[in-house]
């Protein structure tokens, strides 16, 4: 399929309205749908969650915008389609050839007058969006758990849908679950369990299909404020509530920057350890990893990040996955501004500097494929996950921060506030953003900026913003003192934040010796750190420098068997492979793989060339 540079228009006059006629959509490489002919507009979902068979079964009824089409095309992958109805009458359908990445086109026969299409279906054991957990894989170990992960193109594996980010729908849902469990979705949610296990949901604001989300488990709710709160298993609830107690302050700070929070409620659910990401910005209900529950709020920039997505991503959405930086670069920038507003510029700059170092490592990793360091990507024939790298996040952030410094914060904030307001509930591709940027900021203020180089060229341009942190300067001085004297000044580190520890470990020199790592470990017991981020970077350093003291190898194995966050897992398996310990990595992976979500296991399968059953 050829990517056409056509803006996916959408009625944005209020957050209640959706399209009232077929729009001109980008024809993009990751969906079979043909929405310019017929597009979904509203979904009524009626499903049952069957933990015994580990399937979801039910029906999806769509109100459609029909541009005189005789066929409407949906995306489907690893689903069993039982029957399809058009305006209440059974109609013919067919499933096209199977593509390993995209699944199959589901073609449904309609008339040019058809307004509703109902698809009766069930999921299968191959459904990639779903992870079914037994009680032992949860925090409380008393009840099973289910959660979905739709980004980027996995919603089609649990709902037959037009699975393109430029398509926006409202939805209602009825979900039947076992009576002792609660269901929550990216919608208006219950605060307590029902007696019959039946839950109803409503999402009145139009969202992209990748933001459809469902979690089912023995969970409870605890409010933080009138519009914020947390869901978690009972044993985790108070810890989660404390960790995220600044949620309302973050919402207020965000609103002061870029306008009203339009999603009514901002809640977070902390999922079991196998959740593959740090967080997922499902509207009204962010999904989060338990690895951020550090006990000291030191990793809650994740909350700021997912909250920022309520504007950049959920409100103004990348039209295709080739424009992913439009979601993530803006969100990292917004995240840093929230963190600065609440905790000061140095805290934000420490986060930004760590991101800058991650970006350097990413660029080095792409030295054989430099085109992957462009912000606007060409992903035709490739999995959109290939574009979900530090480039979109951290180069995107650096571009916007550099732009802010060039034009001045006051003008840049006014520009961004208008950008979110004018394009609310619509999608944006890179070329249209460049046009909007030129017309509404650069040309208007007679400012010259190398936008094209930042977006369409590999690497990072020379005019990048320079980020500094006094605290990190002191950390680096501590490293020099240690290397020079071999003495460890523990008094200097007693008030260090997580970010300072991460910077310390990541900036230990490339030629550091195992005995030096042993000395640091003896002083700070880094191998046994209870902070998942610090532990991860220390384990990576230990692997890279052949350090085996303090039981670190056993800790690494335990970590990989108990954490499913793809970033952490992939980092450590990469390190093991690079260190020539692939056989060891495979042995660990064989025991850990069953605890990982398919998003994670698919990545590690490819990294370690693992084939199930061998």
Low-pLDDT residue spans:
1-22
What percentage of residues falls in helices of 4 or more residues? Answer: 25-40%
Task: Determine the number of helices (DSSP H or I, runs of at least 4 residues).
Answer: 17
CATH topology of the largest domain: Immunoglobulin-like
Question: How many angstroms does the end-to-end distance come to?
Answer: 36 Å
Q: For the largest sheet, list the strands in their spatial order.
A: 5-4-8-2-1-11-13
Tell me the total number of β-strands. 21
For this structure, the quaternary state is single chain
Keywords:
single chain, 614 residues, alpha+beta, Immunoglobulin-like, Neutral Protease, domain 2, Serine Threonine Protein Phosphatase 5, Tetratricopeptide repeat, 3 domains, seven-stranded mixed β-sheet, five-stranded mixed β-sheet, 17 helices, 35% helix, 20% strand, globular, disordered N terminus
Structure description:
- The structure is a single chain.
- The radius of gyration is 24 Å and the shape is globular.
- The strands form five sheets. A seven-stranded mixed beta sheet has the order 5-4-8-2-1-11-13, with no helix packed on it. Strands 15-16-17-19-18 form a five-stranded mixed beta sheet. Strands 9-10-14-12 form a four-stranded antiparallel beta sheet, with no helix packed on it.
- It has three domains: 1-217, tricorn interacting facor f3 domain (Immunoglobulin-like); 316-456, Neutral Protease, domain 2; 470-608, Peptidase M1, leukotriene A4 hydrolase/aminopeptidase C-terminal domain (Serine Threonine Protein Phosphatase 5, Tetratricopeptide repeat, Alpha Horseshoe), CATH 1.25.40.
- Strand 6 and strand 7 (104-109) form a beta hairpin.
- 35% of the residues lie in helices and 20% in strands.
- The chain has 17 helices and 21 strands.
- With 614 residues, the chain is α+β, with helices and mostly antiparallel strands.
């Amino acid at each position: 399929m050829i990517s056409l540079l056509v803006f996916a228009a959408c009625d944005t006059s209020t957050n209640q309205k959706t399209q009232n006629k077929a729009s001109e959509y980008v024809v993009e490489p990751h969906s079979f749908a043909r929405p310019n002919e017929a597009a979904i507009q509203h979904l009524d979902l009626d499903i049952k969650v069957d933990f015994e068979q580990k399937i979801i079964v039910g029906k999806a009824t769509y109100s459609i915008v029909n541009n005189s089409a005789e066929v409407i095309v949906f995306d489907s992958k690893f689903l069993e389609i039982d029957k399809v109805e058009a305006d209440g009458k059974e109609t013919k359908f067919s499933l096209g050839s199977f593509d390993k990445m995209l699944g199959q086109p589901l073609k449904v026969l309609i008339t040019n007058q058809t307004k509703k299409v109902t698809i009766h279906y069930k999921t299968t054991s191959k459904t990639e969006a779903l992870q079914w957990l037994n009680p032992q894989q949860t925090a409380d170990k008393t009840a099973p758990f289910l959660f979905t992960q739709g980004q980027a193109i996995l919603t089609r594996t649990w709902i037959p849908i037009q699975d393109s980010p430029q398509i926006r729908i409202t939805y209602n849902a009825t979900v039947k679950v076992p009576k002792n469990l609660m269901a929550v979705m990216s919608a208006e949610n219950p605060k307590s369990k029902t007696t019959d296990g039946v839950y109803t949901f409503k999402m009145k604001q139009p969202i992209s299909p990748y933001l459809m989300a469902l979690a089912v488990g023995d969970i409870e709710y605890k409010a933080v404020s009138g519009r914020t709160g947390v869901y978690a298993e009972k044993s985790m609830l108070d810890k989660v509530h404390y960790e995220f107690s600044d949620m309302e302050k973050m919402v207020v700070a965000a609103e002061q920057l870029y306008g009203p929070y339009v999603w009514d409620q901002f809640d977070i659910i902390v999922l079991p350890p196998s959740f593959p990401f740090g967080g997922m910005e499902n509207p009204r209900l962010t999904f989060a990893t338990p690895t951020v529950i550090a006990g000291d709020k030191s990793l809650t920039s994740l909350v700021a990040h997912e909250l920022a997505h309520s504007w950049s991503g959920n409100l103004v959405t990348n039209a295709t996955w080739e424009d992913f930086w439009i979601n993530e670069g803006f969100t990292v920038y917004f995240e840093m501004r929230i963190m600065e507003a609440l905790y000061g510029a140095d805290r934000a700059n420490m986060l930004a500097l760590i991101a800058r170092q991650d970006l350097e490592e990413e660029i080095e990793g792409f030295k054989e494929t430099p085109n992957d360091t462009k912000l606007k990507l060409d992903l035709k024939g490739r999995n959109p996950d290939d574009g979900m790298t530090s480039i979109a996040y951290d180069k995107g952030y650096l571009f916007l921060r550099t732009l802010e410094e060039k034009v001045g914060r006051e003008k840049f904030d006014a520009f961004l506030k208008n950008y979110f307001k004018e394009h609310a509930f619509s999608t944006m591709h890179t070329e249209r953003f460049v046009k909007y940027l030129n017309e509404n900021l650069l040309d208007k203020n007679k400012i010259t900026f190398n936008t094209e180089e930042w977006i369409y060229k590999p690497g990072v341009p020379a005019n990048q913003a320079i980020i500094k942190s006094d605290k990190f300067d002191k950390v680096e001085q501590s490293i020099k003192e240690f290397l020079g004297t071999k003495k460890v000044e523990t008094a200097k580190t007693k008030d260090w934040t997580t970010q300072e520890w991460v910077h310390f470990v990541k900036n230990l020199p490339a030629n550091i010796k195992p005995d030096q790592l042993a000395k640091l470990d003896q002083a700070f017991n880094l191998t046994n750190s209870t902070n998942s981020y610090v532990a991860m970077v220390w384990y990576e350093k230990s692997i890279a420098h052949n350090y085996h003291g303090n039981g670190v190898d056993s800790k690494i194995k335990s970590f990989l068997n108990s954490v499913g966050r793809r970033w952490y897992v992939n980092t450590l398996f990469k390190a093991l492979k690079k260190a020539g310990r692939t056989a060891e990595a495979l042995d660990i992976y064989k025991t850990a793989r069953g605890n990982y979500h398919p998003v994670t296991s698919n990545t590690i399968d490819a990294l370690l060339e693992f084939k199930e059953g061998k």
